[in-house]
Amino acid sequence: MKETKKSIRACPAPQPMEGQAWDPAHLRKIQEHPCYSAEAAHVFGRIHLPVAPNCNIQCKYCIRKFDCVNESRPGVTSRVISPQEALERLSECISKFPYIKVVGIAGPGEPLDNEETFETFRLVQENFPYLHNCMSTNGLRLPERLDELISAGVRNVTVTLNALKQEIGERIYSCIHYHGKTYRGLEGAAILIQNQLQGIEAAARSGVVVKVNAVLIPGINDHHMVDIAKKIKELGAYTLNIMPLIPQYLMADIPSPTPQERKRIQDECGRIIPQMCHCRQCRADAVGKLGEQCTIGGK
Ligand code: SF4
Ligand code: SF4
Fold first, then answer.
1. 290: Cβ below 6 Å to ligand 2?
2. How many Cβ atoms sit within 10 Å of the Cβ of residue 233?
């Protein structure tokens, strides 16, 4: 087992919006989730189960050799495991790290494009009903698969949303694969964005706690983050996680935003919707607390 310790920079804890009341079950989904609450990150942990290798879009910053960089950092690749292996890994981790409260699927590809995601969540729900099922998605198939996700016990969803306008989306996504067809350029971006927005709204309305990840890409969507913050608040999302671009693949020549630039935009967006500032850009098989990350099985 390898272990590293990193400090956690915290933004103020998110609060209910005016006129909104959170019931105890809703509060538990936030208060026991290390990514939704900076306080919880010191106490509770999460495990990512890498059961989902396929992806249905191509982001221009993703080289596809590594875990999905909409949620994870590149440089390491998770070994894909079966749902049954995932259950065994979870049992082992829970006995070693009883503070784990969240079971997440974040890749290494797009979870909603892999049936193993649903099978794994069903197994977790049957065997560990007290854990929170959590998933990250690019959102392309979120509207059509939301009911299945909820039936499989998923109540925390992260959607990566980098653009509201197809002209910006076209600069970020090369293509999407949707219902047996490949769409490129403006057309592909328009379908993706429409489904992301629909999915966020439908999920929030169904009682799912929605976090939005947005990859901050200087010169492409940095001026657009405030619009994203306003839109997702209107749709009922709970928090926004602005992640710095990791320059690679077709965006290898675009420099990462500086920490100062990112903070300035977080501060601006924080006046609109609560910000997650303590994201560690974990790998798709991460285990443990965010600032004290452990991996098991020699990986
Ligand atoms: Fe890569 Fe994730 Fe984008 Fe798919 S959704 S291309 S895995 S970053
Ligand atoms: Fe949480 Fe960020 Fe890690 Fe995802 S990548 S589990 S949001 S800290």
1. yes
2. 18
